[in-house]
Design brief:
This protein is α/β, with parallel strands linked by helices. It folds into 2 domains: about 110 residues, Rossmann fold; about 100 residues, NAD(P)-binding Rossmann-like Domain (Rossmann fold), CATH 3.40.50.720. It is about 35% helix and about 25% strand. The protein starts with 12 loop residues before the first strand and ends with a helix.
C-alpha cells in the first residue's frame, strides 16, 4: 500500500488513527479522501459506533489522487473491512473497478466499498441518506417533486425516491437531454416531466424543490439545497453504514 499522509499530532498513530483505540478484535473501516484527516468526518461514524457499543473504528486516510489506484489495489488484502470515499473519488473508484449493483451502474459513481472474502462489494449510500434526510423534514408521498440538476447524486436519490410514491417528478437541467436520459428509471405509475433551466431561472410549480447543483436556488416552494446540507446528509450516511458494519 502507498505511504499514508498523517497530520495528527501527539500519541502513537498508525494509518491515521491512534493505535490505543484499536483492539485485536476491532473491525476497521476507512474514510478516504485527499484531506480526510483534516475534514474529521470520521467522528460522525465513530460516534455512531460508540452509540451502538460496537467494537468498530473509522480511520481517516489522506490518499493522493496519483496513489488512489495503487491504494485500491492493496485495500482488499488489508485489515480494513470497508470504506467510504469523499466526493473527489466517487467517479474514480467506479471507473477503476467498473462494477457494482444496479444503482451504482445507473449513477456511474461509487461512494462505499465493503470487503468480503478479499473481494469488493461496491455500493452507493448517499441516495438513501438524502431521502431519509428529506423525509425527516418533509412529507414527500403524493407530492410533486422537482429535482434540479441531473448529477450522479440526484440520480442516486431518484433511484430511492421512486419507491416512495410521489405524484409527479420533474427533472430540471441546463441540458434537457440529461433529463431525458435519466427519466427512464421513473415507472409509469408516476407522472414525469423535464424542463430546461436557463441562466439559473425557471418557473417551477411543485410542492418540493430539491437542488443538486452548486448554485443556491430559492423558490416559493419548500426548497432544499443539497450542498448546504451535506454535513447533515453525511450524518445520515454514517448512521446507515454504522448500523450495517457493526453487525
Amino acid at each position: 500500500m502507498p505511504k499514508m499522509q498523517n497530520r495528527r499530532r501527539g500519541g502513537k498513530i498508525t494509518l491515521g488513527y491512534p493505535v490505543d483505540k484499536i483492539g485485536i478484535n476491532t473491525k476497521l473501516y476507512s474514510l478516504i479522501g485527499t484531506n480526510a484527516i483534516e475534514h474529521k468526518y470520521d467522528k460522525l461514524f465513530n460516534d455512531k459506533f460508540k452509540d451502538l457499543d460496537a467494537d468498530c473504528k473509522m480511520m481517516p486516510l489522506n490518499i493522493r489522487e496519483d496513489d488512489i489506484g495503487f491504494f485500491l489495489h492493496g485495500l482488499k488484502d488489508s485489515k480494513i473491512q470497508g470504506a467510504f470515499f469523499e466526493k473527489e473519488y466517487w467517479s474514480t473508484i467506479y471507473n477503476l473497478l467498473q462494477e457494482g449493483d444496479e444503482e451504482v451502474k445507473f449513477c456511474a459513481i461509487c461512494d462505499t466499498i465493503d470487503i468480503v472474502n478479499n473481494q469488493y462489494k461496491i455500493h452507493l449510500t448517499q441516495g438513501r441518506a438524502i431521502l431519509q434526510y428529506i423525509q425527516s423534514i418533509l412529507d414527500i408521498k403524493e407530492k410533486t417533486i422537482c429535482i434540479i440538476g441531473t448529477t450522479p447524486s440526484s440520480k442516486s436519490f431518484l433511484f430511492h425516491l421512486i419507491n416512495e410514491l410521489p405524484t409527479k417528478i420533474i427533472l430540471v437541467d441546463d441540458i434537457v437531454e440529461n433529463c431525458i436520459n435519466t427519466i427512464s428509471i421513473i415507472p409509469n405509475n408516476i407522472d414525469k416531466d423535464v424542463l430546461r433551466m436557463q441562466n439559473n431561472n425557471i418557473d417551477i410549480t411543485s410542492d418540493i424543490v430539491i437542488n443538486f447543483t452548486e448554485n443556491k436556488i430559492d423558490t416559493n416552494n419548500n426548497t432544499i439545497n443539497i450542498e448546504d446540507n451535506w454535513h447533515t446528509i453525511l450524518d445520515y450516511i454514517a448512521t446507515i453504514k454504522s448500523n450495517q458494519w457493526s453487525k
